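Checklist before submission:
- one chain only
- standard amino acids only
- sequence pasted in full

Submission:
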Amino acid sequence: MKTKFVRTLDYDRFKFFETNRSIVESHVRKLMASISEIGLLEEITINEDYYIIDGQHRFEALKRMSEHIVAKIKIGASSDSIIPVNIIRRGWSIKDYIEHYAEEGNQNYQLIREVIQYNKSKLSTGTLLDLYAESLHETRRVREGKYVINYEKGRMLTDMIIGLEEYVPMYSQTTKFARAFSRVVKTNEKFDIKRLKKQLKKYKLMVYPNSSDTAKSIVELYNRGLGEKNRIF
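Returned file contents:
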C-alpha cells in the first residue's frame, strides 16, 4: 500500500467504520492530557476515503482540543485492516474483538455478544467465552475471528456451575474453577454432574490458583471410589 500524510482542521471529513470499537471517555481524557503535556506522539491512520483505521481515540481527543488532525493515509485500506493494526498495537480488549466481528455479521460473535450482554451470573466475559466455545477456548481464536460457539453446551455448563454454588462456596463462579470444570466436562463424555455433587457432599474440593491443577483436583475427587471403567480423565 502507498502511504501519504495529511494535516487538517476539517474534522467532518473523517468517518468511522461501524466495526470500530466504541469510544471510551476515560481514554479520550487521558489522551487529551497527554497531548497537552507532550504533544501528539503518533498520527492516526485512515484510508483514502478518510475512514479511520487506527486512532479513533486520538482523533476524538484532537477534535475536542481544536487541534490539527495529523493522519497517515493507507491507500486501499478497509474495515478488514482494523483488526491486524490493533493486534500489532494490542489496544483492543476481548469485548472490542467480539463487537467488531459481531458488527461484521459473524453469527458466532453475535450470539456470544448476547450471552455476555444478558449475563446475570458472576461469571466473567473470559469465562463465558470458555464455557460457550465449541472446543477448548483459545483467546487467539477470538482475536482472529475464528471463535465458534456451542450455545446449548454453554448454557448447560453455565447452569451446572451456578448449581454448584452450595457445594463449592466462594469459588464456583470464579475463573479458575469455571474454566477447570469446563475442561473436565468437555473432555469427558460420560461426566455425571450428580456424581460430582455426591462426592462434594462427602469430600472437600481443593481449588488451586491455576485451572490445570483445579481440573486435576476435580477429576481426582470425581474418581474417588470408582472402578476403572467409570473413571474420567
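Reviewer check: The chain is about 50% helix and 10% strand.
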